[in-house]
Every structure is written in C-alpha cells, then in structure tokens.
Amino acid sequence: MIKVLSVFGTRPEAIKMCPLVKEMELCSEMESVVCITAQHRQMLDQVLEVFEIRPDYDLNVMSRCQTLFDITAKVICGLKEVLEDSHPDIVLVHGDTTTSFAAALAAFYCRIPVGHVEAGLRTYDKYSPFPEEMNRTLTGDIAELHFSPTTQNKDNLLCENIQKNIFVTGNTVIDAFKTTVRDTYVFENEALNTLPFGEKRFVLMTAHRRENLGKPLENICKAVLRLAEKYTDIHFVYPVHLNPAVRKTVFAYLDGKKNITLLDPVSVADMHNMMARSFLVMTDSGGLQEEAPYFGIPVLVMRTETERPEAVEMGTVRVVGVKEEDIVAAAEHLINDATEYDKMAQAVNPYGDGHASERIIDAILKWAKEEK
User: Fold this and answer.
1) By the 8 A CB rule, do 171 and 259 touch?
2) Disulfide engineering: 136 pairs with which of 88, 96, 267, 280, CB 3.0-4.6 Å?
3) How far is CA 159 from CA 76, 154, 155, 163, in A?
C-alpha cells in the first residue's frame, strides 16, 4: 500500500482533485488521505459536498481580508503537524494556488516526495497571473512527479531541465463532468431554473483575477453592458466572485439590467451544467478555458495572456485582452458570424478524454514500485 496525501484548498483545485481522490479510493494498492486548507471556505465546501468527500484533516486557514503572507504561513505551519501525523509516501498538490506551493514546500521540508497535478503551465511572466505563475513554477522545482495535461506542458518542463517523471495525462477537470453534468439536471440556484435555457442564447461570464481589478474590470463590465444593450435577445449570466473589490465594480455597472443576471458564486454542478447550455463563455478564469471546449463552447479570454496556449492553437479559445473595444469586437464577431462561431465550437478539445485520474494513479504506482 502506498499512502497518498492530497492537499488542496480552493474551489478550482477541488473541482480537479476530487475526481482523482474518488478514483484513488477505489484503488486497492493505495490509501488515500485528504487534507484541505480551506483557503476558500464556502466555495470549497460546496465542491466537497458534490463529490461526497470528507477530509481527514482541515486546516481552516481562511480569515477575513487574508493576505498571501497569511495563507502561506498558516499552510506551512499547519501541514507540519499533518505530515508528522499521517506519514504519507507522497503528497499530491494541484496547479498554481498558494496552498499548492506552500504544501509542496512543507512536504519538501519533511523530505516527502511531491506529485504535481496540472504541471507545466506557463506564461513566462512572473507577475501575470500573480501569484499563480510563480506558485506553479516553484512547485514544479520541488515536485518529484509531474502530471502534465498536455504535451506542450511537458515540453515546458523539459525546457526548464526537468527531465524525468513527467506524465502526460489529460486534465482531471474533464473527469469531473462524469459526476456533475446531466441532461435532466435541475439547478440548485432557483434563479437559474427561471431562465429560458434552450430558448435564448446565453453568455456565461466570470471575471475576478487580481491583475484585472480596477480599470481592466471596469472595461470588461463596460463591454458586457454594451453587448447586453445591443443584443437584447442574448442573456448574460455572471456568478460574481465574493471579493468585495470585484463586487463593487460589477454591481455598479451591471446590476438591474434586464438581460443580465448577477448571482453569488454557484455550486460546481450548477456551473458545469450552465456552461453546457451556454452559447459563449467570456472569462478571465483558467479553469473555464479547459472546461468549455469539452462542450463545444467558444471561449473569449479577457486577459492579456494565457497559460493554456494549446487551447488557442487548437482554436477553442481566443485571447481578447482587457480593452473595452477589443472585447466587444471579439464577442460581436462570434454573435454575428455563424461560420466563425462554428469554427471555434467544432475545434478539437486538447484537454483529454476523462481518464486523467486513472493515468495519474498508474504513474504513481509505477513510480512507487521503481523506488522500492
């Protein structure tokens, strides 16, 4: 038996780690242990409930107005006790959060090997996205095993002189859809059940990244407002992040508009099923760039760069920046040009076939046997 400790603390991590945890629970050669940091408390708990996962350890680090300093220090100190109590053979972390980097560093201090799920994503700009780019780069330097969603992610690691234990697995977010998406799904949020999905075109949007706070987010909201006023037959749905700085801007520009629905963050199941029924996704999120192409939904990325260039290259994603005019022009192109829309909608999804978790488990078991 190999004991695997999975550590995660935010909603995006949980969406991608829970399918892996469920798969490990079925593996007779593994003992799966879960530690959550609760870097995001409420949004994390919603995902755990959907996947029916009860953590073995809960650091509960979230605090009001928390800073990166707070999160990093609490995770490292909290994990010291968890690692000493659980004695795992390997620690799994995911992606690019502060939880992931701090957990990897704590494991390193205890000389415990680290497996990095969703390894090798890069923008090569340490301040964009911030702090994610450095979190994933530093986690990659610490990790012993690297589970890359795509070949391009693997190539990034090879260029950084990481030469062994790199496995191309696909992205575990595709695995999650087996649990969350159903044709007969009834939304948990009653406001969503009142919307005419199937009768009108819907645009799902999110925007909340640190680098977009201030003027960029204002530009995004202005662009959406112009689109909503011009295309009254299209409905915009925006689950608004709980960050007060985000909500202040978004509600100032978009609240009270007839064909714009502003919601508090919705459950992962609501989000996935709403996405599956949408016409277009407009976002600054990383995860939605991977999720929407599975459903054949074009994605406009309201950022100046993406760490997921394979989606751009395959044609499922388009980076449009954060200028009002550019966002409006890109959205109108897809709204008015059916040929261009179909070209994006029918592009090949580069993120896998829904079996990433199985490949990760196989790689861990192979590595463990070689180590013995």
Assistant:
1) no
2) 96
3) 29, 9, 6, 9
Q: Which of 25, 28, 16, 160 is nearest to 100 (CA)?
A: 16
- What is the pTM for the complete model shown? 0.87
Does domain 2-171+353-371 match CATH 2.70.98.50?
no
User: How far is the C-alpha of 318 from the C-alpha of 327, rounded, in Å?
Assistant: 11
* Bridge partners (DSSP) listed for residue 261: 237
Specify the domain boundaries for CATH 3.40.50.2000 within the chain.
2-171+353-371, 190-346
CATH superfamily of 190-346: Glycogen Phosphorylase B; (3.40.50.2000)
**pLDDT tens-place values along the chain, 372 residues long:** 999 999 999 989 999 999 999 999 999 999 999 999 998 888 899 899 999 999 999 999 988 888 999 999 999 999 999 999 999 999 999 999 999 999 999 999 999 999 999 999 999 999 988 999 999 999 999 999 999 999 999 999 999 999 999 999 999 999 999 999 999 999 999 999 999 998 999 999 999 998 999 999 999 999 999 999 999 999 999 999 988 999 999 999 999 999 999 999 999 999 999 999 999 999 999 889 999 999 999 999 999 999 999 999 999 999 999 999 999 999 999 999 999 999 999 998 899 899 999 999 999 999 999 987
The residues carrying an active-site annotation are: 96, 118, 132, 208, 210, 241
Cα–Cα distance, 356 to 70 (Å, whole number): 33
β-bridge mates for residue 3, sequence order? 31
Q: How many CA atoms lie within 13 A of 87 on its CB side?
A: 1
- First-to-last CA distance in the chain? 12
The encoded tokens of residue 152 equal: 């391009």
Tokens for 64?
Answer: 């009001």
Task: Give every CB contact of residue 110 below 8 A, 6+ residues apart in sequence.
Answer: 80, 83, 84
Q: Which residue has the tokens 């795992």?
A: 88
